[in-house]
Amino acid sequence: MNAQCSICDDDVDCAENLGVGHVCYQDLCQQPVCADTDKGNDLIAQGTVTITYDVSDPIKYVDQCSNKAQLKEYFCNTNTMGSAVTDCPPDAPICSNGACVEDTSCSLHTDCDAGQVCQTGQCVGCTEDGDECDVLGNGYFCHANLCQQHLGACIETDDGDDLTTRGSVTVSWD
After folding, report:
1. How many domains does the chain have?
2. In this structure, are strands 117-119 and 122-124 parallel, antiparallel, or unpaired?
3. pTM above 0.85, yes or no
4. Res 75: pLDDT
């Protein structure tokens, strides 16, 4: 019996007529295939489960946050979709955009890792080498995407104003 011609009322009809693995979907017996982009229970990557049927359009289920600390994770269970609401783990306790992420919120610079600053409630590093990190005080500059204090050790080979000699500058960071 062809799945496209098998009209059904429930999954039992399909299993009896076509065998295990066939389900009744949109009044037709169909054999679903399930695929998950994050390969199952991966809390730190947002995934999408796609159920593809013989003659119907695929259905997609995207991992989503149930609340600020819990993730609704979709996964494949044989060839059907399953889901579970799971607490985000301690190393990534915040649910954001369908994945558990680190808590980078802050209210003070001291809440952040060394070399980061607190801007609009988030710990961030700097982006342009040489930029001043004014929020940390005088003497902090961006170096290697971190705000670092300049130790005052600056060596200039041509005294800074000799236009006829090519010079170089060496700066020491903390």
Report:
1. 3
2. antiparallel
3. no
4. 94
